[in-house]
Every structure is written in C-alpha cells, then in structure tokens.
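Q: I have three molecules that I believe assemble together. Could you output structure tokens for the complex as a whole instead of separate predictions?
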Amino acid sequence: MLEILIHGAVSSAIYAMLAVGFTLIFGVARVLNLAHGSFYALGAYGTYVLTAQLKLPLLPAALLAIAFVAAFGVVIERVFVRPLRRSQLAVLMITLAIALVVEQALFLAFGSEYRNVPAFVDRKFTIGHVDVGGQRLLALGVGFVAIATLWLFIQRTRLGSAILAISQDPVAASYMGIPSDRIFSIVMAISAGLAAAAGILAGPFLTVQPTMWLLPIVKAFAIVVVGGLGSIPGSILAALMLGYAETIVGYLISTSWTEIVSVAATLLMLVVRPAGFFGRRAAF
Amino acid sequence: MSLLEVSGLDKHFGGLYAVRNVSFTLAKGEIVGILGPNGAGKTTLYNLLTGFIAADRGRIVFDGRDLRGLVPHRIARLGISRTFQLCRPFIGMTVLENVIVGALGTAGTNRADLDGRARALLASVGLAGKEQLAVDVLSYGDQRRLEIARALAAQPTLLLLDEPFAGLGSGEIADLATLIRRLHAEQGLTVMLIEHKLREFMRLVQRVIVLDFGEVIAQGTPDEVVRHPAVIEAYVGRGNEALVERPDAA
Amino acid sequence: MMAGKRLNLAGAAVFVAFMAALPLVFDSRYLIGVLTVSAIYGIWAVSWDFMSGLTGRENFGHSLFIGVGAYTAGFLNTLFGVSGWWSLPAAMAVAVVFALVVGLPTLRLKGPYFALAMLSSAVIMQRLMLIFWEKTGGEEGINGIEPLIRSQLGFYYFVLGTLVALTALLLALARSHWGLVLRAIRGDEATCQAAGLNVTFYKIASLVISAACAGAGGAIYAHYQQQVSPQLFAVVTSITIITMVYVGGMASIYGPVGGAILLVLLTELLRNFGEWRLMIYSCTLILILFFLPNGLIAPTWQRIRSRLGRRR
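A: Yes, here they are, computed for all three components at once.
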C-alpha cells in the first residue's frame, strides 16, 4: 500500500512535468507539440552524451542538457512552428515529423540498445517498510519543486501575467503591447526544459532508447485531455490520477497494461466530458 | 394559427441570464423584427430556437412540434432556416455548390434537379452569372445574398435572419430589404429579423419584439415600440429621453 | 468541362495501361514486388484521402484499420484455415467495427484532438498485440499466411485492379453530392447542421468507408507478405501514408496513387542508405509541408490537363 503511494507519487511527478509543459505551450500558443516527447528523449540522451562521452560531472551535464533542449525547443518554435501556426493540423504534422527525425537521428547516432543515464542518487532509502530508490525520490522532489516554482512564477511575476493574458485572449494581449512572439519562445523554452528535466530524472530508472518519445506524448495528451487543455491545475490533478492509476494497475494486473490506462482514460474522458475537468476551451 | 410559440424561455451561462422568461408568438406569414442593445440575448435566442444551445426552461413549439431537445439538423428539416451574423460561406467551394449543399439537407428523396433549383435561387437573390465563382472573391454584399440563397435552399417555413444588413451600404441595404419583402410576398415565408439599422428595419417589419438583458421589454408595431419608455431607457438610459428625436418621418 | 472529363479518363487509362504493362516489359520479380507494394499503399493512401482529405479531419491513426484488417486475415487464415477470399470482407467488417468504436466518441472533436485520439488508439492496439503475445505472436506476429493468388503477376494484377476500382469508386463518391457535403463540413460544420445535414452521420460514414478500404488493403497485405507484425500499427505507417497523400495532393483522391508509387520507389532507391531511409522520409514530409502544401502529383496533372485542353 505504501509502495503504491510512493511509486504512484513518483510517476505522477514525472508525468506532471511532462504534461504541464505540454499544456502550457498549448494554452499560450494553441500548439499541440508532438515533438514534446523528443525534448524528454533529448534530455536523457544529452545527459548521457555529456557524462559518458565528454566525461562531465552529472549536475553540470544535466543543467547543460536542459539548456540545450530548451534552446532546441525555441529553434523549433521559431523555424518550424511559427510559419504554420494558422493551421493546427499543419503544426501537428510538422512537430510529428520533427519527432520522427529526432528519433531517427538518435537511432543513427546511438543505435537501438538502451543507454545508461547516470542517477544522481544511487542509494536506496527505506520509508516505512518500503525500499525506494533515491533517484525516484529525487524525481518526486524535483518535480514537485519545479512545478510549484512554475506555478508561483505564473501567478506572481509580470511575465507570468503576460502568459496568462495571452492564453486567455491573444489578440487583446497583443493590443496591450504584450510581445506574444517573445513569450511563445519563452514558454517553449520552459516547456522543453521541464520535459528534458523529466527525461534526465527518469532516465536512470526508465528505458532510454530512440523511441522513448512516443509514449510520453500519448500520456501527456491523455493527461491534458483529462485535466483540461490549457489548465495547469488540471494537468497536475490528471497527472496524479494517471500516475496512481498506472501504478495500481501495474501492481494489481501487470506492468504491460499500464499504457492502456492512459489511452483508455483519454477515450473515456473524450466521450464523457471533452472539456476535461478544468478545461476552459473544450476539445470540440 | 401561430407558427411559433415560445413561452418562458430561460438560458443562463454561469450566473448570468442570457435569456430570461422570454415569451412570444409568430403567426404564419409575419415579418417580425427583434431589437435590442448588444448583449441583449438576440443571437442566443436564435441559437435556442435552432437547437444549437439547449434551454434551461421553457417551451418552444413550432408548427405544433415541441423543439426542446432536438438537434440542429432535425430542426432545420422541420422548416427553420437561419443566417449568421458573420457570413459563413463554405470556403473552397463555388457559389453554386454552396447553395446545393444548403438544399441537400432537406432535399430528402427529392434530389431531382438540385442544380436547377440552386440556379433559380441564385437568380432570385441577384447572383445570376456568379455561380462558378469561388466564394472568397465575392463582395460582402454578395456573400450576404449567398447566405440568404443558401438558407432558402432548405425550403424553410420560417427564416431567421441575424443582422442581414450589417456591413452593407445604404443602397445594398435597400436592395436586400426589397428582396426580403419580395420573398415574403411570393413564398409566404415567415421571417424573423435581428437588426440594428433602424430605418429600413422599421419599414420592413410588421411587428417588433425588444429584448434587453435577455428579457422582453416591449412588443408591438414599430411605432409603438419606438415610443415605449422602457425601450428608450434601454438604448439611451434613464433621464435621457429628451435626447431622443421623435421618428416622425417615415 | 466535357473535354476535361475525357482527358481525365484518357489520363487514367494511360496510367493503368502503363502500370499493367510494366511487369510485362521488364520481367523482374523484384519490380513486380515493388509495384504490388506500391499498389497496396495506394489503396491505403486513397482511402485516407477520401475521409481526411475531403473533410479536413486528418486521421493520424489510419494504421489502426490497416493493422486490424491484416491481423483479422492472419488469424482467420492460420487459425481457422479460412481462405483469403473470405478474409477480405471479414477484415473490412472488423475495420468498420473499430471505426465505429473509436470514431463515434472522437469525431466531434476539433481536428488536432481527433488526430491525436486516433494516434493513441493505434499505439494502444500495437501495445495490445505485444501484451497478448501468446495469442498474437508478439513482435514476430503471425507467420505462414497463405498467399491469395499463387502467381506473383496474378496477385499484382488483382491488387492493381482493386486499386483502380477503389479509386474510381471513391472518386465518384467525392464528385457526387456526398463529396460536396464532406467538403462543406470542412468549411463550416455548424452551417451544415443549420442546413439540415446530419454532420455526425457523414463524418462517421466517411470514416467507416475509409476504414473498410484500409482494412481490405491490410488483408491483402497479409496475404501478400504472408505475415503480419505489430509494426503495421506503428506511427510510421500512418505518417508514411499521410506523406503519400501530401505528395499526391490532398483531397484529389487520385493524386495519392501517384504519391504512393513515388514514395515506395523512393524507399527502394534509398535502400542502399539503409538506416537513413526513415530520416529522409521525415525530412521529405517537412519539406513538402513548407514548400508544396498542395502536393506534386495532382497539381502537375491539372497543369498537363489544362495545357492539353488548350491545344485542342
């Protein structure tokens, strides 16, 4: 029982980091970015390269990887997404194509065997009567702090208000002199950085291979649909639900069934309440 | 025999009433106008009548049928057609194709010569010769005519027009008003009309219903309604009645 | 206008004759194989275009219908010894069921969400095939499916014939009132409803038709390759088909046939580049989205046609 509680929390934290970024860029730019999973993958692979091949210590490598992925995200937004922003479907296609290109590039560079991303914490801790890997606890902690920081940032700073303004009404926001284009880039950087961080934290205990971008996207989409597109609290809540649902299914049935949970949840939610729990903009 | 009976219609969004206790009837063959300041609930009323939104309370009976709970395309097939405030032609298709699609929904088994019927409709609204044009190249006035042709293609008994004069110059407005009058006379169409451009509007309609904040504040002939204190107050505020010029000239 | 139609027919006839004659001129098993595969992809691409091209609701999970069609044929053949001629309609039926189950809740969603929901469904089916590996053969899939037609050339002509018949049928539908409604739905759904059209019905129906054709293609594929694997459900399959449609010309119905052939040829030519193939594919898609959003094949044919028309 305690095991489920802890592991569920860890999963939820990782998912929340993925989903919040995904929903943020959607809320602000109306962009469903299918390359979001690639940020996750690149975070993990980037850290691997910096530590294993360039022999950097872990923390600087991780931070560098996050910075690189954030920059990559901004480049994608500027070069590929912005010109096509009029058509949501075109953006979907191009980000999917980019995700495939990244997958192929990773495959060509690193092959398909699993790579090793070193963990920050190697020890195991014992909470109650349960053994938990330190890395997992770290993931939980960092996830929590990162999202709390983001939430405070959006609620308390001017930039945060600008972001909220644009997500409510892009035209009015631009009339108020808010530089939407620059904000999109900033939000994309945040979104990509969060996803990369998730990849780095989860890398040590989840698989690192070129196709690792697809499932996170399916799950991020599920979370965002259930929580409500564009709603950060919704994504957090849904991430918790999904994280725990998967953990419970994993314990009760088998781990192979866990992915089904997210898609089943998506389809169910779309049937029952397409706006999600807190969505202001419905998916229809 | 009333064609449309609306009683006690309520609709609220969140805490706000968009439409409140609205009741009125339409007799067959009338041209009735709906007036009201912006946000008064006029388009919401249309959305309720055509099934795009579900009312919270109240009854809508059209030609003896209860419309509550019916989806828009069923209501359209029963004989109610509408236009929208902003022209919404089917982009990527020609003028003729737009009208044919308008007819398809209600054509049922009578699919013979949809092409011919569409051309006749286009001619009657003054768009003859423009059948093969793509809708994006039409002028706004022509787009309006297309909207009306498309709405008529569904062979309605009741036509709901939402600000048909918006965006048109005075000459075009006069032409459109003449067209509506002619259609009404020739086909016995019952017409309901939301408008802000008062001059033509007052000459066109036989009866006016005035909405403000979702409620009916006045009903009557154009003359009666224009002098009605509640209406004047709604438009210019209390205490400012003296500002209003009496509309003596017709 | 009449001249246009006649030119279209002439063009189609020339194309079909060319495709039929190729294997007779170049007696190569390899070539026939490539042509057969491109014809199967053509079936998949045309069926995608009919629904997604016309209504603008891009379906990112077309591989779902392909996969269930292929697996249905595989199961029926290997488990129950059912001949290919029966598995084809069975595959179509199963694909239709899936189209209804997934389509009904998701078609009322806006474009991107429908696309992603379909994508998710395909991914899940892929997972399910792996989870139930005992029944489905897991990564290996089902092997030892009987070929539909023993003769390689015969099989090719069968697939080519199916492709032509299907394209003609869907083209006719697209040019009819049905197609008008689908295009109007692309334009403005609410107005269609206000005009009395049951939009949901049309969307579901076109998805069902698209799925049935894709499923049939999947079954044919199963009997051709004589094996099916979960890879059929992969995102790559769906994206490849979408790329083919973009190259061919969205909503043209006939364009994707050319797109399919071109891309399969490209794949074969790039075989030497082995691992770089998929990369080149994806980059091609990106380039097309930016520079040739109307495609290559259909606009080219339209230009040829208008030039031929002028000479007369």
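A: One point stands out. The interface with chain B takes residues 177, 180-181, 183-184, 186-188, 190-199 of chain C (CB under 8 Å).
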